[in-house]
Amino acid sequence: MGRKSRRKLRNRFDYRRRIILSKEMEIIEYIKKIESEYDTKIDYTKAEKREKLINVPEKLKELYKETDGIVFPFGRVYSIEEALEQSENEDKRYFCFGIDYLKEHKWLCLFTPNEMGKSFNLCAICKPDEVDGLYEDVIEFFEDMRGYYDEDPWNVIEIKRAKNINV
Predict the structure, then answer these.
(1) Taking a C-beta distance cutoff of 8 angstroms, is the pair 153, 137 a contact?
(2) pLDDT at 77
(3) Residue 76 in contact with residue 69, Cβ under 8 Å?
(4) C-alpha Rg value of the chain to the nearest Å
(5) Are 133 and 112 in contact (CB under 8 A)?
(6) Higher pLDDT pick, 167 / 36
(7) Mean pLDDT score, 5-13
(8) Measuring CA to CA, how many Å separate 101 from each of 27, 104, 141?
(9) Tell me: domain 3-162, CATH 3.40.1580.10, correct?
């Protein structure tokens, strides 16, 4: 097995390990984990009492009970007001709760999970395709979005520069 193949296998293993670890994690813990791993401050607004949570999918209620918008390196979770506004333009089966760091993909959550219990996915902004759930919980979804971000060569260079590592 070549060096490149071993690296891919190791990256795949690390990704799966992160997914397993993330299943028990609360959103504030997750924010602190990302801050530590990226050595950066994650901007988020603490949630206030929200009457509007009735219009949010069950799988996102915990997120919006804790925060009202988060800016990660790999994307942004909308505030509840912005998410409700964005969701008005979506199919009524989906709730649009964020966007990736390239602003090319909307983050969607099904109001009713699919037959496998999965609710989260992303969709290209210009393609309103049928979207089915691929991820069971929001942390699992965030970890996959983070994986895409980490694989982007330009982001690797920026992360190294931020940590004062020669590129």
Answers:
(1) no
(2) 97
(3) yes
(4) 17
(5) no
(6) 36
(7) 45
(8) 19, 8, 14
(9) yes
